[in-house]
From TrEMBL:
Belongs to the aldehyde dehydrogenase family. It comes from Arenibacterium halophilum. It is an enzyme of class 1 (oxidoreductase). Its EC number is 1.2.1.85. The keyword NAD applies. Signal peptide: none annotated. This is 2-hydroxymuconic semialdehyde dehydrogenase.
Length: 484
């Protein structure tokens, strides 16, 4: 049986927190035993990260760090197939997704933030003084220190390097706590760190669960100078409380209940293609995915019919096969949660246009399969319409006026992302300005320029990452004022 170890101070070590099983969601089989970090291991990881700030890493120029970041990207790509297999086995997601998104983007993040740190200057201000000599202010970009990085399971490598790359670009050191569901690729990255010459202690990985375990040990550790987290809103609240001790900054990328808004004049085929992906890609386990769809009355029937056909068109099976277009959900527990909402929809009188239950996939009876599902007919305050389900499902509701569509979309405590589908530029601009979310797409979904601000409004998060916004979180600006 494969053992997955913690990575502390450049070495793979067994933790004192016992072991837990890592499952292949497609079959339910145990593929590895993961060694959980105890409190002492998290102490050691934070200590190593702190020591590394004072070692060779802390003395490197930006150019030297950038050269190493580029080697990390190359190093992942050189072992692309290993990363790909590890990610597929941890998540059950199809090769078609992991080979196009997870692993290439996971590697590319290091190049993106290498470019970013090289081209991002800081502010200078000249000021007048009463004696006429003047003064010059400039800001120095300094690392925050040790960053705690707590990650979810839905895009494990990609979302982890999205944080680790800018943190390292800014000169910080990190302690990563991957999701207990997906420990493999963060661990494999430790090998790449050593191979390309990242000094020991700069990148550490501690495994385990959240409350009362590695996650909480890390986020409550006084030696951590900042915490970046992606995951559920409720966990974000707990982490924010932990971060209050010691007044540590947090970046929180949290949950959503994202709405799509389709206007009568939308291009039907392009909309169905885009919104189909938004609802079902990665088995609906994308924070930006659409679980509420508001459709203007004139196009409503065609969207309902078209989306139901999209749902029915997915091919489930071996994720390593190119023909497979939909995998399982992440775990038995998550399958039960998603199916619980499917039951609630049925009990609430929903009209089921597609799916509606567990899926049976020949040869994979023990996998965590659920059907891509489309409902109509539920009240807007029904739990299926208000709660983040994080499964391949959406509820469609009709609207008449632009105002009404926007109001329905905004009727949520969450505010992560939306997509607007229309061929009228005026409608697009008006709606985009009024939707209370951090990320709006018009006639597209998940089209990402990594320099743009990324994050949520309302309960979907605090702060923005991406481009220079990441640098703002992972560095501290110190102003120097020189009297001339
Ligand atoms: P989760 O909150 O259950 O877990 C995320 C991580 O937090 C895991 O590593 C977990 O072990 C850890 N954790 C849990 N409780 C903790 C605690 N008390 N202290 C410290 N760490 C703790 O989330 P998940 O189920 O892994 O991921 C799915 C969620 O992530 C969804 O809500 C989804 O919307 C969200 N998400 C958001 C974004 C975004 O960019 N906004 C991106 C991806 C996923």
């Amino acid at each position: 049986m494969q053992k997955i170890l913690n990575f502390i101070d450049g070495e793979f070590v067994a933790g004192q927190g016992g072991e837990f099983a890592d499952h292949f969601p497609t079959t339910g089989e145990v593929i590895a035993e993961v060694s959980a970090a105890g409190k002492a291991d998290v102490d050691a990881a934070v200590g190593a990260a702190r020591a590394a700030l004072k070692g060779p890493w802390g003395k490197m120029s930006v150019q030297e760090r950038v050269a190493l970041l580029r080697k990390l990207a190359d190093g992942i790509n050189a072992r692309f197939d290993e990363f790909l297999a590890a990610e597929i086995r941890d998540t059950g997601k199809p090769r078609s997704i992991a080979s196009h998104i997870d692993i290439p983007r996971g590697a590319a993040n290091f190049n993106v933030f290498a470019d970013q740190i090289l081209t991002s200057g800081t502010e200078t201000f000249e000021m007048a003084t009463p004696d006429g000599g003047g003064a010059l202010n400039y800001a120095l970009r300094t690392p925050r220190g040790v960053i705690g990085v707590v990650c979810p399971w839905n895009l494990p490598l990609l979302l982890m390097t999205w944080k680790v790359a800018p943190a390292l670009a800014c000169g910080n050191t990190v302690v990563v706590k991957p999701s207990e569901e997906t420990p493999a690729t963060a661990t494999l990255l430790g090998e790449v760190m050593n191979a390309v010459g990242i000094p020991r202690g700069v990148y550490n990985v501690v495994h385990g669960f959240g409350p009362g375990a590695a996650g909480e040990f890390l986020t409550s550790h006084p030696g951590v100078d900042g915490i970046t987290f992606t995951g559920e809103t409720r966990t974000g609240e707990a982490i924010m409380k932990a971060a209050a001790n010691g007044v540590r900054p947090v970046s929180l990328e949290l949950g959503g209940k994202n709405a799509g808004i389709i206007f009568d004049d939308a291009d039907l085929d392009k909309t169905l293609e885009g919104i189909g992906r938004a609802c079902f890609a990665n088995t609906g386990q994308v924070c930006l995915g659409t679980e509420r769809l508001y459709v203007q009355r004139g196009i409503y029937d065609r969207i309902c019919e078209g989306l139901a056909a999209k749902a029915a068109g997915y091919v489930m099976g071996d994720p390593f096969e190119d023909a497979t277009t939909m995998g399982t959900v992440i775990s038995a527990e998550h399958r039960d949660k998603v199916l619980g909402y499917y039951d609630k929809a049925r009990a609430g009188g929903a009209t089921i246009l597609a799916g509606g239950g567990a899926a049976e996939v020949p040869g994979y009876a023990d996998g965590y399969w659920v059907q891509p599902t489309v409902w109509t007919g539920l009240a807007e305050d029904h739990a299926v319409v208000t709660d983040e389900i994080f499964g391949p499902c959406t509820h469609i509701c009709a609207f008449d006026t632009e105002e009404e569509g926007i109001a329905l979309a905004n009727n949520s405590p969450y505010g992560l992302a939306t997509s607007i589908w229309t061929t009228n530029l005026g409608t697009a601009h008006r709606a985009a300005a009024q939707i209370e979310v951090g990320i709006t797409w018009v006639n597209s979904w998940f089209l990402r320029d990594l320099r743009t601000p990324f994050g949520g409004s309302k309960s979907s998060g605090i702060g923005r990452e991406g481009g220079v916004h990441s640098l703002e979180f992972y560095s501290e600006l110190r102003n120097v004022c020189i009297k001339l």
